[in-house]
Amino acid sequence: MPQNREQGTASYLRAGRLIAVMLLALVFATPVAPAFAQAAGQVHVRIVKAGLLVGGGVGSGTLTYRGKAYRFRITGMSFGITAGATVGRFDGWASGIREIGDFAGTYSSVGGGFALVGGVNGVHLRNEKGVTIVMQGPKAGLELAANISQITISLK
């Protein structure tokens, strides 16, 4: 009789382990929805820049966030080696937005670029609220730049 009891206990332990493994597999197989604070928005921008040593730019764009389109305005200054004028269109993503008001603010970037009639440009920006924007796209014009930029985005 002691041997039967040991066999019964062993089979209960195996069944318990099997159930535990199946539950873990189910937990890890379930798709995880992103947290509300982690939603990303799609960004489209058109900007005109010009400068000689100190550059400036203005533009506008649209942020598509949680199914809604938000129009915004961009103004910016760059300090460093800047010469020329360009027109650019950028597409990319904004992340770290907890609420739509977080998107507006002052963004900083350090970078450079070169365009002779046409080229491709990329930008990585971050504001004081932790929102990060990564964009790239074509630009046309003539520009040589190696600078620090500060860009202000305001929602319309």
Overall description:
The protein is an alpha+beta fold. Helices cover 18% and strands 64% of the residues. It has one helix at residues 2-29, and strands at residues 41-65, 68-95, 105-127, 132-155. Strands 1-2-4-3 form a four-stranded antiparallel beta sheet, with no helix packed on it. Strand 1 (41-65) and strand 2 (68-95) form a beta hairpin. It is elongated. The protein starts with a helix and ends with a strand. The model is unreliable at 29-36 (pLDDT under 50).
Counting helices, strands and paired strands, the structural category is: alpha+beta
Secondary-structure element pattern, one letter each? HEEEE
**Spatial shape:** elongated
State the end-to-end distance.
82 Å
Average predicted local confidence, pLDDT: 77
Biggest sheet features: 4 strands, antiparallel
Instruction: Give the count of helical stretches.
Output: 1
How large a portion of the residues is in β-strands, by DSSP E?
Answer: over 45%
Q: Say how many strands there are.
A: 4
Low-confidence stretches: 29-36
Strand order of the largest sheet: 1-2-4-3
- What is the radius of gyration? 26 Å
- Helical content class: 10-25%
Name a few traits of the molecule.
64% strand; 156 residues; alpha+beta
